[in-house]
Amino acid sequence: QVQLVESGGGLVQPGGSLRLSCAASRSISSIYVMGWHRQAPGKQRELVAAVTTGGSTNYLDSVKGRFTISRDNAKNTVFLQMNSLKPEDTAVYYCNARGVMNEYDSWGQGTQVTVSS
Q1: Are 106 and 112 in contact (CB under 8 A)?
Q2: pLDDT digit string, tens, across residues 62-96
Q3: Are 79 and 23 in contact (CB under 8 A)?
Q4: Which of 4, 60, 100, 103 could cross-link 32 (Cys pair, CB 3.0–4.6 Å)?
Q5: Can you tell me whether residue 12 is helix, strand or coil?
């Protein structure tokens, strides 16, 4: 239903910041929930942050106060601002768009985030 392309990943030192972007192929204003997930080597994919059409947000406990998810509906883009990064944040980060009844569940290709000295 929607194609997603992530960007903004890279290598940063602990304590640094990155801003991930997720560009959608169509308007995101009617998409029930958009979020960011991550997967580290050898681990399961986990939800990092999500935002609904109504503006409700949900964050992984370990990123609360450090990460912020936001939307720019005019630009069909969702962002993840990541501050105070830690080595354990290292993972591939994926953008996701999901319908209210799972009529669609779209994923981007992922962008690598590496936090290391």
Answers
A1: no
A2: 999 999 999 998 999 999 999 999 999 999 999 99
A3: no
A4: 100
A5: strand
